Amino acid sequence: MAALCLLTSCAVGPNFVRPAAPAVTHYSGGSDPARTVSAQDTAQRFTAGAQIAADWWHLFSSSSLDEEIAEALVGNPGLEGAKASLRQSEDSLRSGYGIFYPQVSAGAAATRQRYSAIKLGQNASSSLFNLFTLSASASYALDLFGGERRALESLGAQVDLQRATEQATYLTLVANVVNTSVAAAAYRAEIEATTGLIDLEREQLRLTEVQAQAGTVPYSTVLSIRSQLATYEAQVPQLEQRLIQSNDLLATLVGHVPAEWTPPVVSLSDLHLPEDLPLSLPSDLVRQRPDILAAEATAHAASASVGVATAALLPAVTLSGGYSASGLTTGSVFAANGREWSAGGSIVAPVFEGGTLWFKRKAAIDSYHQAMALYRQTVLSAFAQVADSLGALQHDALVLEAQEEALQSAKEALRLVQINYEAGLSTYIEVLVADAQLHQASINELQAVATRYQDTVALYVALGGGWWSTSGGIP
């Protein structure tokens, strides 16, 4: 009868259904771009529905970058902690399966007792004896209304939540390593370019001071060049500090203190910009982004909690039984006159709780509604991030195209000024000014290149990072 009741009973509370993906076929307004404009002879193309490589950072073709990420995946404490949390939730789920089995216990006792018949109103002498007892008991809670099954369902949702958290930690770690390495490479290049610019400004200042002493230029020109020189000189310590901070952050990401680890040098010239970029379908995005999966698991757990709270309002039935054998000596423990057993069942139903259980169920329902609202918000934010990344890459290419044109114009201007200088038509100061403009254009182009790399990383992150593309799971 117990098995029949268990098999035919249903679990109270809502059955969780995975929310459907938004009914859209693209991310941006109008339509998604097919490609960016060409900048530095490279146009990035977007392939709808293409699979994202699990090790997408290899597309940047930098062995130093690969080395940093490999070390981070092994030594980062945050990723290690996320893996431990996942294992903890999996073990909690395994322990939860125990509710489907009877709870059986066994015991053995040996006591020496002094018995007094006075307690029974008898005027008999007391006796001294040994008592040996073996006992066993079993109980089984019938999950008639599915409260325990809903609790187990909640544990399963917690596993999904921790798995998504691990995936998010993995993705964030890899993205941080790549972005920080790109930033460090840009800082090195900017320091080198700014140092060259400072050398030119100092030479220009020296010549201008000579001209000011000769009375051919006003002294205000000297002051203007000094001000510009001081501005450039102030930029170098700032860039050096940012480079130090980037290296310290990389050390932290790979699991070392800065004093014991020096990152391999990654330069912008060593990096290759991925040209063919995957673009997951909107229907796939909600099944692969870790933050969306985490929000879905949270909503699933909240849904199961409604069932648990509902079952608490209903009767609970428990079957139990026990057996014991006692004897005055070890050899007589199994004698017939020392055997005892019991079997029965109990039913407990809440009668009056002052509204506690009822409002706990109401609170669980409210929590479920909140989780579903947060899920929808997470999906909206995810789609917006993909659209932003697509737009950013298009604008990055336009900016880089303009900076490249400015750089070429600065180079041509310098060439013409140098020709005029050699012909005696321009002064050396004009040559230095043109050279300074060239260096500034070069710095602007470096910044545009670094931004393009980082926005490419942002697209991979916005699409979920490709963790599902490897059979071995997250490293």
Helix and strand layout, with pairings?
Elements: H1 2-8, E1 45-48, H2 63-75, H3 77-96, E2 103-115, E3 127-142, H4 147-214, H5 219-253, E4 276-279, H6 282-285, H7 290-311, E5 316-327, E6 339-348, H8 356-422, H9 428-462
Parallel strand pairs: 1-4
Antiparallel strand pairs: 2-3, 3-5, 5-6
Helix pairs in contact: 2-4, 3-4, 4-5, 4-7, 4-9, 7-8, 8-9
Keywords:
single chain; 475 residues; alpha+beta; Outer membrane efflux proteins (OEP); four-stranded antiparallel sheet; two-stranded parallel ribbon; 9 helices; 6 strands; 57% helix; elongated; disordered N terminus
Written account of the structure:
The protein is 57% helix and 12% strand. By secondary structure, it is of the alpha+beta class. The chain has a single domain, classed as Outer membrane efflux proteins (OEP) (Up-down Bundle), CATH 1.20.1600.10. Strands 2-3-5-6 form a four-stranded antiparallel β-sheet. The two termini are 49 Å apart. The N terminus is likely disordered.
